[in-house]
Design brief:
Helix content is 48%, strand content 10%. By secondary structure, the protein is α/β, with parallel strands linked by helices. The strands form three sheets. The protein has a four-stranded mixed β-sheet with strand order 3-1-2-4. A four-stranded mixed β-sheet has the order 7-6-5-8, covered by helices on one side. Helix 4 packs across helix 5 (114-121), helix 4 crosses helix 6 (125-136) and helix 7 runs antiparallel to helix 8. The longest helix is centred in the C-terminal third of the chain and has 25 residues, at 350-374.
């Protein structure tokens, strides 16, 4: 495998979640950016294809039709992926050059700036930013952060202790690990230990199908999503969690995030992505990221999650990480159950967990049924030929 293929493979691994969410939402904006093949049918499609949504483990992503066909997939006769304009060769080569520059930096060195990368690639910073994001779904800076974080996680999975893995991955200190990867790791441990001192947290409590729902956020992202029985209890719990923070009720400012959560609860928005600002240990980070990969309408056992994060004997630790999840729905800990099929625990009550899983199964089944109803019989027969 060439270096170019290795880089593209890593990009697909890093951005698999974004691509999966685009596929689940049938987002036409991603048509031509990637294609997906379904192993059970041997067919590949563009993201907006209205065919039945496959299971996540059956899907592979490809940057171009040629790659999908080289892997043995046939073009879908319904969405006709080859009809999508695909003048991407020069743009892909640009992205590859930038990825090489990012990965060539020694551990501990500062990530190259957008201006530096633009000079290396021979294009303006604006053009580089726009092109890189159109191909990968992320910015060059986010790629650099993701690459370093991936190195850290791989060393943790290989058995290194957290401190050794942190320095080997190029983080100069634990504060750098949290601060440089804030989009993934959230607030620093010191900020959390101080009870949110010097932080301003806006919050609101709204009615939901499962009872009162509190949503709270810092300037960096959502820090709390909690179910409860009464507004006052939820507000008191938030104050106890962040006793030194300035709390302010703000319905309007949190409206978009609250609306997304309610749509998710109602089954009209299967994919839910919110910026998060939460305290996480290295192990919690691994677990919570894995939970966000569980497809809507599906479940995994605690043991399966432990296997997925490279700690096959840590099922109990996975359960504890689920129990300490501070953002219901955004990190779907309700999708993790016991190996025998029992629900296990849930921070906000087993009845809510039962209802959440039932709602997601019903919504996913309705979506698949609708897609099947829309699919012409002739196309369906061809797809299975």
């Amino acid at each position: 495998m060439t270096q170019e293929q290795n880089i593209l493979r890593e990009l697909r691994e890093l951005e698999g979640d974004i691509y999966w969410q685009a596929l689940a939402a049938r987002d036409a904006r991603f048509d031509g950016i990637f294609f997906y093949g379904v192993r059970s049918t041997g067919i590949y499609c563009k993201p907006s294809c209205p065919a039945r949504r496959p299971r996540r483990e059956m899907v592979g992503f490809f940057p171009a039709c040629d790659g999908a066909e080289a892997a043995g997939f046939r073009a879908c006769l319904r969405c006709r992926p080859r009809a999508v304009a695909a003048t991407r060769d020069a743009r892909v080569e640009l992205v590859l050059r930038v990825c090489r520059a990012v990965e060539a930096r020694p551990d501990g060195a500062a990530a190259p700036t957008l201006d530096e990368l633009g000079r290396l690639a021979g294009v303006s910073p604006h053009h580089l930013q726009r092109t890189f994001k159109s191909i990968t779904g992320i910015t060059p800076r986010q790629y650099a952060a993701a690459h370093r974080l991936k190195l850290f996680k791989s060393r943790i999975k290989a058995g290194e202790d957290v401190t050794a893995a942190m320095y080997d991955a190029g983080y100069g200190s634990s504060s750098r690990l949290y601060e440089k990867s804030s989009a993934r790791l959230g607030m620093t441990p010191a900020t959390y230990r101080r009870g949110g001192k010097d932080m301003s947290i806006n919050y609101t409590v709204v009615d939901s199908p499962l009872g009162p729902l509190l949503v709270a956020a810092t300037e960096r992202g959502v820090c709390s999503v909690q179910f409860g029985e009464r507004d006052a209890e939820l507000e008191a719990a938030l104050r106890a969690e962040y006793p030194a923070a300035t709390l302010r009720r703000d319905e309007a400012g949190l409206g978009a995030w609250v609306g997304g959560l309610l749509e998710h609860l109602g089954g009209t928005r299967p994919g839910l992505t919110l910026p998060l600002d939460v305290r996480a240990t290295a192990f919690q980070l691994l677990v919570w990221e894995e939970l966000r990969r569980i497809p809507y309408g599906e479940t995994r056992s605690y043991g399966q999650v432990a296997e997925a994060v490279g700690r096959p004997t840590a099922a109990r630790a996975v359960a504890r990480a689920c129990a300490t999840n501070p953002v219901a729905l955004a990190t779907p800990c309700h999708r993790v159950i016991r190996g025998g099929g029992e629900l296990g625990g849930y921070r906000w009550g087993l009845e809510r967990k039962r209802q959440l899983l039932a709602r997601e199964r019903d919504a996913a089944a309705a979506s698949e049924k609708s897609a099947d109803a829309e699919m012409p019989l002739f196309s369906g027969m061809k797809a299975r030929a």
